[in-house]
Amino acid sequence: MSQDLGLWTVPLAVIGGAIRVSTPFLFVSLGETITERAGRINLGLEGTLVFGAMAAYATAVVTGSPWAGVAAAGAAGAGFGLLHGLICSLPRVNDVAVGIALMLFGIGLAFFLGKPFIQPSAPPLPAIPFGFWSDLPQVQAALRVNVLFLVGAALSVALWWAFRHTKAGLVVRVVGDSAEAARAMGYSVTRVRVLATMAGGVLAGIGGAYLSLYYPGSWNEGISSGQGLMAVALVIFARWNPLACFGAALLFGGAGALGPALQSVGVSSGYYLFYAAPYVLTLGLLVATSSPDRALAGAPGELGLSR
């Protein structure tokens, strides 16, 4: 069927793959944006993503409802976010160290609790067939968009607006830029950061639900492939801007879809090297944004402090 479109098969497959692959990146990066805007770093979102995927799949298997699975994943993410926020609120506790510890804890706990759910089949999340107008299977597949992708796109716009035009967004930004200024204004820095970390965990958990209930649509121990950690680099690349997170997530998703797209048109020599494109992109972005000669525009002030 690839001959029907010729060389257009590759860009079409990349576009469709970008939509599918980008959704977990989008939710995790939006969650980390909220957390870092409040002045806290959470490297544990990889563990939250994996545990959310397990919780969603297990709940969907037991209840028969994929949306119950999404709710369970969000609740699990909130729990991990709350735990991270409370621990980091203690004196002389390092955000990065706690995040790494919770990442390992979340992954290990997901593997332990999820073993009984590797074989059972869970109901998938629904998708909207925007390619109904075409008779070509490639177009139909590329334009079959999951509901969570649309939710994530709308959420990126809503967060962008909220950070600029709402009191809650202003409070989060003040706490992230200057804890002393926030305290002088009468706001509880600890409370704001704990709530922001919880919100970030909820979104990361929902991103995990997408992985297990839609794409790839199963539960196994290698389901994440480091997407939670790559999303942290995505946030830096997007300069803590939710709208830019949406575009960057599509970029990462397109990079992840490049290998399968080349394979679909018969490229059989070295195509597997393109499966490493997301990791190469992450490394390149970290190098490009780590220059000591210039400050990171848009970075919350509290992230630059030794805490």
The largest β sheet comes out as: 2 strands, antiparallel
Q: Architecture, CATH level 2?
A: Orthogonal Bundle
Give the SSE order as H and E letters: HHHHEHEHHHHHHH
Helix proportion:
55-70%
Description:
It is a multi-pass membrane protein. There is one protein chain. The protein is an all-alpha fold. It has a single domain (2-301), classed as ABC transporter involved in vitamin B12 uptake, BtuC. The chain has helices at residues 9-37, 45-63, 66-88, 95-114, 137-142, 147-165, 167-177, 179-184, 189-213, 227-237, 242-264, 277-288; strands at residues 127-129, 144-146. A two-stranded antiparallel ribbon has the order 1-2. 48% of the residues are buried.
Quick tags:
ABC transporter involved in vitamin B12 uptake, BtuC; 12 helices; globular; transmembrane transporter activity
Please provide a brief summary of the model.
By secondary structure, the chain is an all-alpha fold.
Write the layout of secondary structure elements.
Blueprint (H helix, E strand, L loop, with lengths): L8 H29 L7 H19 L2 H23 L6 H20 L12 E3 L7 H6 L1 E3 H19 L1 H11 L1 H6 L4 H25 L13 H11 L4 H23 L12 H12 L19
Antiparallel strand pairs: 1-2
